[in-house]
């Protein structure tokens, strides 16, 4: 089972991150590469509006780069039932070339395991042990193991001992014994009279009506089998039910299919079993062994709209990054081998993806073209942000001409339906689009939301700032900044809390006066200068 390449944006994903992940995934699929779009957070109202408008499902939600058992190749769990004979279990092992069988009930619920080693022990153990198992073995199991049939099914209790006719027959205690006899009816009569529970008639011999009548009177069972005496002695112990020798599930380590490979490997080191059950709600989904873990693949990722560890999916160090497409500063992501890293001074990651389609002469579907357009509109404030480049403007014209879109109309409809802070929960505003930075050794977090009307901030400013202070008691940022930006690029309002809030207040006031709107190009660089 080969894993796909996951194309994934940053934490608290904005529209550009989601749309570029979806568009780049479609691009990879068009190149014959199995790719899946992912996301590391919930969709913003703006992004939800866009996906509903375009008619595309959101990317797969992911919270870790680790591999779970459900994502690696494991073996089929070969099943037997508790009432099956160990002969049947042995045949199943040989047929499927496995050493471990998984015991399930009629509802396919996992009960325990039975190994080929468990079965082999029955033939090697002392009779005093196996006879205790055989005495409680259902008669039907004995018949199945011997490929025989009932002549008469009696009701006598069995001792578990298996006897044959020999010179000391008259000296032996035959009470409850299983007698294996050929065509000597005299021995049959003596055995029945002396209390044997079962007579196995070998080589398909059928006793006379007289012997059958005696057996009925005494309650002895008569079984007919095609095997000879030696074969019966060999095979009868294989009639013992699997349930008698299996190891119950309580004594065996099992794994959920959602458990991570690293955790499973650690648990396996504590035991010496050859394989282990993999379960989902107590139902078997497979069997895992150490070699499955050794040959398992790492998850592969293409990062879009970010290239820093703290912004990426958790545990990214356990995965393999195969490509990065981004328009931010170069961060601290490390890779184990050379990769394709496309980093451009441009307004949005969707702009880069649109360029990749154009360069590869791959025609976008109308849905993908709309996603790229919406990502560009969102990240460039409809091309009014200072991050907007001539390349973005040229791509806008290209999309409008090639795909019949009107980006201004799309932007107007988008902003009218989504760019408002009225009625929104403070938590959603603060964590909708947030990024963490280390500037001159200080931990700083800057959140940004867009709104048509900046005057709406006046109605929530006092309460929102109190909410920020409460949140920062848990987050411990030196500076927690909230930026409310006009969606058409006409300035921003700033709220700050944290130990640095008073120190940077004069500079932040200048940010407002200068109508800063870009976190990446204006706010962060200017703040970095202040903190030098």
Q: What is the structure about, briefly put?
A:
This protein is α/β, with parallel strands linked by helices and 532 residues long.
Describe the structure.
39% of the residues lie in helices and 20% in strands. With 532 residues, it is α/β, with parallel strands linked by helices. Strands 3-2-1-16-17-18 form a 6-stranded parallel β-sheet. The longest helix is centred in the last third of the chain and has 19 residues, at 457-475. The chain is elongated. It starts with a strand and ends with a helix.
As laid out across the biggest beta sheet, the strand order is 3-2-1-16-17-18
User: What separation lies between the terminal Cα atoms?
Assistant: 52 Å
Low-confidence stretches: none
> Looking at the structure, what is the overall shape?
elongated
* Record field, number of beta strands: 22
Broad structural category: alpha/beta
Mind describing the biggest β-sheet? 6 strands, parallel
- Relative strand content: 15-25%
